[in-house]
Amino acid sequence: MMGGEGTLDSSDPEKTVGSYWPYATTLWDYIHRAMPFGNAQSLSNDQTYAVTAYVLYLNDIIGFEETVNADNIADIEMPNRDGFIRPDPRPDIQTAEPCMSNCADSVEIKNRASDVGVTPSDHGHPTLVALPPRLQPEQAGGDASGQ
Fold first, then answer.
1. DSSP assignment letter at 73
2. How many Å apart are CA 40 and CA 130, to the nearest integer?
3. 61, 79 Cβ separation under 8 angstroms
4. How far is the C-alpha of 108 from the C-alpha of 28, rounded, in Å?
């Protein structure tokens, strides 16, 4: 979720919050709906803002002491905020008008990502449990609990 600056126009782009994500509000929404892994949608709004701020900080988008909340999240300028344009200029992409009336009544969810094998299942995976290098306790001035 961090790094990737300057890679989007390369042959191997790294699509991360710091390089690809266009809006902090959609990051908040993703975190609120999908995290934590294995217990999605269990974070309070305040916890979601805290995790959002942490991810933005890891990507050098906000400072360590900055607060993210409902009043300022839309004002955060993401590095790739101008990277998405409409309509899509690629000739092979069909761009349809959004449905504004007489739309489908409901959407049926066919599968979960974990059921079709596109999410990690190893809860002991180091990327899911280790502190990022810049926040190791000896660097943060405390222990792993943040003290």
1. G
2. 19
3. yes
4. 24
Q: Do residues 20 and 31 lie in contact, with contact meaning Cβ atoms separated by under 8 Å? A: no
Give 49-87 pLDDT, tens digit per residue. Answer: 999 999 999 999 999 999 999 999 999 999 888 877 666
What kind and span of H or E run contains 45? helix 45-58
The answer to whether the bond into 13 is cis (omega within 30° of 0) is no
- pTM (global) more than 0.70: no
Cα-only R_g, the chain: 18
Torsion from C-alpha of 127, 130, 134, 140, nearest 10 degrees: 160
> If we measure between CA atoms, which residue out of 103, 111, 99, 24 comes closest to residue 68?
24
* Cα 123 versus chain centre, distance: 20
